[in-house]
Amino acid sequence: MILDRLESAGYEAYIVGGCVRDSIMGFAPHDFDVTTSALPEETEQVFSSMRVIETGIKHGTVTVLTDGIPVEITTYRVDGEYHDSRRPESVSFTRSLKEDIARRDFTMNGIAYSPKRGLFDEFGGAEDIRRGVIRCIGEPERRFQEDALRIMRGLRFSASLGFGIEENTATAMLDCRALLKNISAERVFAELSGLLTGRNSDQNLRRVMSEFREIFAVIIPELKGTFDFEQRSKYHSLDVYEHSILAAESAARITKGQENQLALTLAMLLHDIGKPECFSIGEDGEGHFYGHAKISAEVADAILRRLKCSNALRERVCTIVKYHDIQMMNGDRLIRKHLAKFGEQTYCDIALAHAADDLAKRADYRGRSDVYFDLIERARQIASESCLTMRSLAVDGNALRGIVEPSPKMGEVLKYLLDGVVDGKFPNDREFLLQEAGKYIAKRRGK
């Protein structure tokens, strides 16, 4: 309807960019961008009977709401000079679609389609999609100097689509990587998040992060200390960095499409980042990293604050990192204690971290990962059947009033009773717990 209206008014109009790329690849587009020869005020006139939002009018973009769906319509444009590797100083409008496409990032995103005119593909994007190649439109260095975030976009596309990166484009990415320092932390983190959770990141994450590790060291400098750091451990055949990115890829695979995919994948990328600081050699010649989980969590916290990660995600990631190597396989008693300490969600996060970690170790240790999926199932069963919190304890402060006055001591008694129930020493029975509370108070008074 939008294309027809613009065409009927005498203008050219195409859908362009990601929606065309995804359609060619057989994926359903999530949104549509339209480009047109109509100037912004002409576009507004064409859609005067509909709700129009001046999204970025000075850059030629207006948004039309059709059936509640926003569609961005942008006038063909040519960008002016870039001085900050982020945005053009000015834009000028053009009636040439080719000039508009020539300013875009990659050939696969430089394809336009009109039902009336068919595909417009002056830069070979359809062929690059067929070959599985990410290639800049025009001169790669210029594209990245214009907007350095295109470097991260290219890596995200490579991981998500499974495409390789054309040689000149890859070289320019590496040469221009320092320009990423000019980009806001929020935009960089959004691209990193997309890279970690993309459609095929569970198959391509390690390849991309290994081939372009120097780029990732620009946005997370702390990673550089893990490069080529040999672990000298019977558990590991990979250096710290390669182990971490394989663990992250494994995490992406076992959580694919789930709400915890970003948290776990990010946690595994950072879970051993403190190892170089803790390295020591034992008398047996084995490498040891005592205390590395705590230090890694502290480093991860600093990194995620710098990247403007949300507080909830940062706290979740850092908790996984801090406890990623705790003992978990020791029966129902330990499961109950961990569930009481962490809660069900965090317990499952930590168990999945163990699984992803094992999948990145020497081949003979990878089979252990299945144990953690069994632990998760058992933990969920225990969580549904057991008393693990004060809320589910058979007694509360009111029930204890005849035994102890409201005070910090009452909280101490309730904790003692809950610990006993979680530990399996006490049944979660009101009368039994009241008797135990009385014994506990009497014993404390005797002391």
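Above is the first protein from milestone M3; the second protein from the same milestone is given next.
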Amino acid sequence: MYRKILILLLFPLVAYSSVDKYVIDKTHFAVGFLVEHVGYAKTLGMFREIDGTYSHDTSNNTINDINIIIKTESVFTNHNKRDEHLMSPDFLNVAKYPEMIFTANNVEITNDKTIINGELTLLGVTKPLVLTGTINKMAKYPFGGIIKPYVMGISARGVIKRSEHGMMYAIKDNLVGDEIELIIEFEARRQ
């Protein structure tokens, strides 16, 4: 008798406690960057290959276990020679460091903006990276077949100093900026 009462009392906690895993949709993401070039203008670039997962704890309204892997050789700035230079040891050194990785945990979701305190590993150096983000929408996807996936859309922005990761090329002469503005937009599907 007491066992049944205990189960009934705990059932609402179990029923409402939910942690959902999300995987970034490789067809709906953008990881872009802006970096100053000789003071004239900023160069806009992006990375075209990314893998990423995280979990959303709906009970506590937090995001955990963020693990985003960016393939460094997927860098694209719409100029072949510049892209080749960015892949060289002067910048991304893709032969030695084929991935950059962002991780974070215990991200509290708020209505206006969410601060994501994480770490970025670039060129083998791990440094803190703070992103300011918003969850744009969480809902069933309007496209697809009979069973429509549940999707979360996220926007985030941040700034890294490439010198902190040992990327020093052309900083001294102010030819290429040290600060890199990050532009992150993606949709992720609940598993």
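Note on the second protein: The chain is about 10% helix and 55% strand.
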